[in-house]
Amino acid sequence: MQALSLLMLVAAAAGAASAVAVLPSHAEEEPTTAGPPQPYSFAYAAGRFPNHVDRTHEEASDGSGVVRGSYAWVDPRFQVRRVEYVADAHGFHPVLSSPVADTPAVAAAKQRHAALYERIAAEHARLAAQRQEEAARAAAEEADNRA
Known about the structure:
alpha+beta, extended, five-stranded antiparallel β-sheet
């Protein structure tokens, strides 16, 4: 019985291996290149219930790589929130119709982040000045050695 089970297992493994061998390879596909941005625009409104709109989105691009748009939704307090935005080579720039106030935890996290950022920026500035000073010393020593 064990020999029969072993024989069946080997046959199944061989069948699976041969099935894998006939799968098409996608490695031979030629890469496609994207052309320049094309102008487009779209808009939609949607809701959770029939004939009830609780979110909208509209967006347009002139083909130059700059995208302008807005989206809106009804929040849990039934306030309409709207965000207008521009996305360009310099990033995503949202403008909120009614900014949300920071909670104490968010305010504390922002403070910690700003302090950490300042500490890292100061350390990088110190290291850059140190490297410049070392490079100037090395250049002066090299000039002295040539003379």
